[in-house]
Design a protein that fits this description.
Layout lengths: L16 H13 L2 E7 L6 E7 L6 H15 L5 H4 L4 H5 L8 E9 L6 H4 L19 H4 L22 E4 L11 H9 L3 E4 L4 H8 L4 E4 L2 H11 L6 E5 L4 E3 L5 E3 L4 H9 L3 H6 L2 H14 L4
Parallel strand pairs: 3-4, 4-5, 5-6
Antiparallel strand pairs: 1-2, 3-7, 7-8, 8-9
Amino acid sequence: MLDCACASGNWSKPHNAIAWLQQQRICFQIGALLVTFPTTDGGSLHRSIRPVSKEKGRHAERLKARTRRYAGSIPYEDEFETKASIFTQLGSIMEKFSSLTGVAAPLKITNVDTDMIIPKQYLKTIKRTGLGSGLFAEMRYLEDGSENPDFVLNKHAYRKAQILVAEDNFGCGSSREHAPWALLDFGIRCVISTSFADIFYNNCFKNGILPIVVSPEDLAKLMDDADRGANATLSINLEQQEIRGPDGGLIKFEIDAFRKHCLMNGLDDIGLTIEKDGQIATYEERAAAQRPWL
């Protein structure tokens, strides 16, 4: 791997577990891996950044520069003791979801699997951005690379769709998390279907996408609404758990209370952990006093 350690050295000694989690998150954002290795200076641990890429040349140089740029703005030591964390500077990765009004695109295909959502050739990256161009690639593009005019997301009315109304068993197939990443990068924040594959369903909540399960009867109504082209506007209120159609029709939906809380507050797994930073800091102080040799 290509060494991409920070020029400033700010990341050499994370102050605590919260700092380490924050560093892991930023490394993931920039397509890098935070590695840990033992040293001889008192048994402490140092961490350096190495990009998860074997590419050479200008791409590697750009990645180096980007890594240094992020690292140079990261708070250290005393700043971690206050709450001036990476999240207040760079923002939470997962965007909050409370309500959404947008164009709904109808996808009248049953058993849409994750390879249809984002084909395997797009899985070489671990970055969450840039995958929107590969969303439904095998249906969106013809063999010569031009757009397929018959595919719904290539039609003028649906190019900026934020809601997808899909048939049964959406997201089946392999467990690739690139599937919700591609939907989100395209601009899709909500998918409505009669059923979802379990892993895809769970991954949506971890990435700020709201998957809504409705009855076949309600799906038929929503599919009819979505067929209206530029007038296919749905309004979704997560707090009230309801969908309103362009004619004012109302559909209620169910959602797990904990998942609803996470979406409304923009909390992924790391965000949930960092909410407990006070408890973690207390534990670390106690552990350091009890086992100072560690």
